[in-house]
Amino acid sequence: MTAIEFKKTLTWKFIEYIKNQNSDFLITLGNVAKDFINVSKYVLKFEINKKILIEQCSRYAIDSLPITLTIVSMTAIILAMQIAPELVKQGGGDYMGMASGLVMVREMGAIMAGFAIISMIGSSFASELASMSVTEQISAMKVLRVDPIKYLVVPRFLAGVIMMPFVVTISSFVGLIFACVISKTTAGISYLNFFNSLWHGLYVKDIMVTLLKSSVFGGTISLISCTCGYSTRGGAKEVGISTTKAVVWSFLGIAIWDFIFASIFYM
Questions:
Q1: How many other CB atoms sit within 10 Å of the CB of residue 199?
Q2: Residue 95: exposure state from Cβ atoms within 10 A (0-12, 13-18, ≥19)
Q3: Which of 22, 34, 96, 202 could form a disulfide with 101 if both were Cys (CB 3.0 to 4.6 A apart)?
Q4: What percent of the chain shows pLDDT beyond 70?
Q5: What angle do CA 152, 245, 42 make, to 5 degrees?
Q6: Which band of pLDDT confidence, cut at 50, 70 and 90, is reported for residue 17?
Q7: Residue 163 contacts by C-beta under 8 Å, 6 or more apart in sequence?
Q8: CB atoms < 10 A from the CB of 182, how many?
């Protein structure tokens, strides 16, 4: 097989796809790092537009809360339906509260809330900034000597850092309530046994690590989404590509952060 024939095969196309994706990932990672440095400068100097920050915080937490609660609650219900009857069969019904608490507080609450935020808020951030970029609104801001990073990215980044822990706390609490009700309905585990097990199996460390992890998740989602949107060039097609890229890289980002936190605190 000649080199020209090989380049027409699916194997070569797959290799090219992987190479392009890796290159795209490295470019995006570099842009995210650069924007993080610029954002940090304004945050450390307390040069923050408080009005825009409040608007973004309301949007990040209040507007996204219904879909986040729905996703986390349904996850808790499904887990309880699967786990509670099996624990009772094995004589471990008294540990259902502890198991639910560890699963929801350590992992599922933050992860599922992160997925909901990415789908609703992260994609919105990316599409907004991408549209502003391709219509040259960001260029106009630069002409008027308004720093787009300070005006557009900093409030969104801080909104994610500040509000994500609140979203995760509320959604995890609601998820545990649903898990308790479903455990009672499907396996006959009493409310007292559930919360007694939860009280003895959940530690302050778990809560603090989750709050810290949630804050990092929120900042990561906002920063990646804003960077993908801010760096968009072209037209309507590129806006869609940037929005998709923001969602994919945000999913990957919180997965990597979750692995890092699990390695540091639970290994």
A1: 11
A2: buried
A3: 202
A4: 91
A5: 25
A6: low
A7: 57, 60, 61, 218
A8: 22
> In 3D, which of 246, 25, 227, 30 has the Cα closest to residue 121?
246
Q: Which stretches within the chain are classed as H helix?
A: 3-6, 10-44, 50-58, 65-89, 96-101, 109-117, 123-134, 137-143, 148, 154-187, 191-201, 204-230, 236-265
1 — pLDDT class (breaks 50, 70, 90): low
Asked if residue 170 lies in contact with residue 110, where contact means CB atoms within 8 angstroms, the answer is no
Q: What is the pLDDT of residue 133?
A: 87
Average pLDDT over residues 181-208: 87
pLDDT of 92 reads: 78
Q: Please write down the HEC assignment for all residues of 15-75.
A: HHHHHHHHHHHHHHHHHHHHHHHHHHHHHHCCCCCHHHHHHHHHHHHHHCHHHHHHHHHHH
249's CB contacts (< 8 A; 6+ apart) are 25, 28, 224, 228
Residues in the chain: 267
100/39 Cα distance (integer angstroms): 37
DSSP 90: T
201, amino acid identity: G
In sequence order, what are the residues at sequence separation of 6 or more whose Cβ sits closer than 8 angstroms to the Cβ of residue 36? 223
What whole-number distance in Å separates Cα of residue 46 and Cα of residue 112?
32
- Please, what is the average pLDDT of the chain? 86
